[in-house]
Write a structure and sequence with these properties.
By secondary structure, the chain is α/β, with parallel strands linked by helices. Helices cover 39% and strands 11% of the residues. A four-stranded parallel beta sheet has the order 3-2-1-8, with helices on both faces. A two-stranded antiparallel sheet has the order 4-7.
């Protein structure tokens, strides 16, 4: 624990001393919670947040008005049927990678599905447990994705002529509040046919909420007002929760990451895994071409 003196010095150095204004009135549990919040922020983005906020706002303004350069042509390959020979080659390599146990898929579980009219975690949308209807099958998004993983495992097994299906690790990132709800949902449904040990749940981090002058806002006297830290929070979360080490230890080389509300995504796509391997790139992005740079797809 950092303790009051160290916390106070750090916060004052970055113009955030108001966070500890009510410290003397907090009990031990409240002090511990506030310390833990500040420690996580310090370890992920640091406490020098005012210039970070200012720079983020500046860059956001530039991006809204700027010009986006085209990606170099030799960085782009198409899997739209225009080059069936390459697609078949990538798919073969991808199925072989799956058969070797080198692949994972990670769904960014997000928060509550408020934009989709749901008060449940987005991945539960469509389930009989939720009041909102979605798919005729009454399958949840989580079930659709889990069944796709199962299907790709079977295809890889058949392709390799193996007697047992390989493992595609299925990772689920949730916001803090949804972690127990999501885990319980999978457990109630027997992980939709997946083995419980191949499904890994991990928590997304958070960022403090700011006033216009960059000061951190307080939800209560002993708790910072926070918000999930976005999809990019996957990187510190994988490391912090020990998932990265687990994947390395399991021999995973490729992890497909996708948003929970993309029901058309080809989860555990062997074409994508195969292309990643063949390209030699560290990161590959699969996308849909935009009609123009403002179109909110892809």
């Amino acid at each position: 624990a950092m303790g009051f003196e160290e916390l106070s010095a750090k916060l004052e150095a970055h113009g955030q001393k108001e966070v500890l204004r009510h410290w003397s009135n907090l009990d031990e549990a409240q002090r511990k919670e506030l310390e833990e919040q500040l420690k996580e922020i310090d370890e992920t983005v640091g406490l020098d947040l005012k210039p970070l906020l200012s720079e983020s706002l500046r860059k956001h303004g530039e991006q809204r008005e700027g010009v986006i350069d085209k990606v170099p042509a030799d960085w782009v390959a198409r899997a739209d049927g225009s080059d069936p020979e390459s697609e078949a080659r990538w798919e073969k390599r991808g199925l072989e990678a799956i058969a070797r146990g080198e692949c994972a898929a990670c769904v960014l579980g997000g928060g509550m599905g408020t934009r989709l009219g749901s008060s449940f975690p987005k991945g539960m949308l469509g389930s009989k447990e939720t009041p909102e209807k979605f798919l005729p099958s009454q399958k949840s998004l989580f079930q659709i994705y889990a069944e796709r993983v199962l299907k790709m495992q079977r295809r890889a097994m058949e392709h390799a002529g193996a007697s047992e299906a390989p493992t595609i690790w299925f990772l689920v990132m949730t916001v803090q509040a949804n972690y127990p709800i999501t885990r319980d949902f999978f457990e109630r449904h027997n992980f939709f046919g997946l083995r419980s040990e191949q499904v890994i749940f991990f928590r997304q981090g958070f960022m403090p909420c700011f006033a216009e002058d960059g000061a951190m806002l307080m939800e209560t006297a002993g708790r910072l007002c926070t918000s999930p830290n976005g999809n990019a929070g996957i990187y510190p979360a994988l490391k912090r929760e020990g998932v990265l080490d687990k994947m390395k230890g399991a021999g995973v080389k490729w992890m497909q990451v996708f948003s929970v509300d993309n029901v058309l995504v080809r989860v555990a796509d062997p074409v994508w895994y195969g292309y990643c391997e063949e390209s030699g790139a560290d990161v590959c992005v699969k996308t849909v071409p935009k009609r123009d740079w403002k179109e909110a797809v892809g």
